[in-house]
Amino acid sequence: MQIKAEEKNGVTVFKIFGDIDINSSPDVKKSFDKSITRDKNKVVISLENVGYVDSSGLATLVEIYKNLRTYAGKLKLTNLSDKVRGLFEITKLDKLFEIVPTEQEAVDGFSD
Amino acid sequence: MKSIIENDGRLLKEVSNKLISDLKEKGVDTDIIFDIHVGFEEALRNAMIHGNKEDIGKKVMIETENTGRKVVICVEDEGEGFDPERLPDPTLDENLLKESGRGVYLISHLMDEVRYEKGGRRVVMVKYTDRKHL
Question: Do the chains contact at B99 and A59, CB–CB below 8 Å?
């Protein structure tokens, strides 16, 4: 699992490569804990290259969401495969997370 | 196929990867494999962490059978068991921010049939792999 981050119009876009599961979740959490600050609180996570997420992965994303709230920030998820999106729908986490079809829409949405 | 593994989280992926590659080799639909992948790993994780309480001295028993029409998976731990009916519903608004409690719920929604035996120590999961059930 790898995470790459880039800034786009004041929004930090994280791209995760690989599974978000029981093995990688601690690293994902650590990486976001280091990167998210009060000044970097507009976050997009692209799951385009994530083929598998388990309940640990979902829990990690919930933790990131909660951390961002403490910084008055906002999180958007984008580029989910149908199967990964299905996990969010089953667990009703699609009510918690803003899920946007494309990265561009997610970034643009912050300036609306 | 029957196997007994040590209660070691590092073996979880090894066992799961083997089942998933077998299913891929048999040409099972990738969407169905995804559901089995999540269901199987959630059941294994529950057995190791919640059932066997991460006790490395305990074992997890695994049985898998692919009939060509369905995949049947049994996962059994050596713990005290549990009552799945008494677990909180993770989809209620008050539970959405919780960081645990979604594994059993995912299993019940991704697999076609799920039953708990031996007081919850053993879960039997069935996923139909023929297109007629889609």
Answer: yes
ipTM of the complex as predicted:
0.93
Check CB contact under 8 Å for A92 and B91: yes
- In the CATH hierarchy, which fold is given to the domain comprising A2-109? Transcription Regulator spoIIAA (3.30.750)
To which residue do tokens 């490569």 refer? A17
Nearest CA in chain B to A89: B91
- Is the model's pLDDT at B126 over the cut of 90? yes
Would you call A54 and B9 a contact, using CB atoms and an 8 Å cutoff?
no
How do strand A74-78 and strand B113-117 relate by DSSP bridges?
A: unpaired
Between CA B120 and CA B124, with CA B121 as vertex, the angle to 5 degrees is 75
- Full-model pTM: 0.94
pLDDT at residue B134 is higher than 60: no
